[in-house]
Amino acid sequence: MTQVENTTARALLRRLAVEQSERRLPSLTAAIVRDGDLAWFGGRGQVDGAAPAAGTQYRLGSITKSLVATVVMRLRDEGVVGLLDPVGRHVPGTPFDEVTIAQLLSHSGGLTAEPPTEWWERTPGPPAAELFAKLTPGELKHRPGRMLHYSNLGYALLGELVARHRGTSWYEAVRREVLEPLGMTRTTPRPIAPHATGYAVHPWADVLLEEPEHDHGAMGAAGQLWSSAADLARWAAFLAGDAEGVLSPETLAEMREPLSVSDGDAWTDGFGLGLQLARHDGRRLCGHGGSMPGFLAGVWSDPASRTGVLFLANATSGVRYTLLTDLLAILDEHEPRLPEEWRPATHSPGLLALTGLWHWGPVPFHLRVLPDGNLSLTAVANSGRGSRFVPQADGTWLGLDGYYTGETLRVEADHLNLNTFILTREPYQQGTPIPGGAGEWQA
């Protein structure tokens, strides 16, 4: 599916038009991605006297961070760095040598939000050596790992890490390893025409003030890049699962796992490895927001439905971030995705013999074979621990998610051994190696 229907397109455009008009935005673009393709694009307002197009550049702001993080994950997959490595092993000499790469990626390293310079987003930025020379232990605001504390400074460190290991600038590494493979030809560190000019809109009058634009030096890895709706749609498709040539599906899934959250037990908003995460109306969304003086941007992708949504605006403030989820809701209302057709699968008799009812002590579980040949273990009452398991070369099964992630399931003659937990066909079945023994049930 590459295009939405006319009635859907009209409803999406109306929501975009309301946002541009009511929020007084000089221009605004948005797009929907489905199954890897641009399914809808809309633009309102004007850029150089004409409606913005899908190729018109806007500032991405902090969406830049996700692109830098992708190169860091490539370095991890190559064995060059480890996520638990202290950053001082790779970028020594700052007061934060003990903060890990994973903590920097997930904004849980405790570093200050902003660098100890002038307002970095509106001024030219210093090179890495000059910036890092200004740092003091006072820029560490929280114990590393304690909480989510968003840090632009942390991504200056990650950008320098990329530059040192690749022997080039962080941008050149991003361009070669992410932008080119994804076909993002309109994503650049400085604007290239056609591009929008960044504006502040007066709070009490309909007049504009042009915002400055600079090269931010070492801080560029936190928000330097410019891009277009067409390019950002390719990024949204990547986040939704089209990662071939850039990252393995397993690494992309790892980036989407929540590591730090901003709202405690509720967990509706947080961060993975370089990706902002959210839960909304049953969706698990990944992406990032972005803001720089004169610009706002946002992108969300839903890997479960292979759907993405994005916007770009040339205003310092004004866009309601509900715009993205509103556009997704309109898409769901007008064109709900059909479930995949059920089709029978072929599995070996030995695999089918494993299925059915098993018991961990008195707790019953269902063991099912999934269409891909993996196993799914779920509690009958949906109140126990469960996981999916993938077969290993040695005949064991490896847990993929839930409590048993990374744990080993072994199939024995009359029982299952799940990391010392014994599952039997009958509750506390006699004759099986249940720790503590299994006596008779009392009548």
Automatic annotation (TrEMBL):
Q: Record's Pfam families? A: Beta-lactamase (PF00144), DUF7586 (PF24491)
Domain (Beta-lactamase-related) ranges: 15-318
Q: Recorded E.C. number(s)?
A: 3.-.-.-
Name the domain of life: Bacteria
Keyword match NAD: no
Domain DUF7586: start-end pairs: 349-425
Annotated GO MF terms: hydrolase activity
Which UniProt key words apply to this protein? Hydrolase
Q: Which PANTHER family match?
A: D-ALANYL-D-ALANINE CARBOXYPEPTIDASE, D-ALANYL-D-ALANINE-CARBOXYPEPTIDASE/ENDOPEPTIDASE AMPH
Name of the protein in question: Serine hydrolase domain-containing protein
**Species annotation:** Nonomuraea typhae
Lineage, opening ranks:
Bacteria, Bacillati, Actinomycetota, Actinomycetes, Streptosporangiales
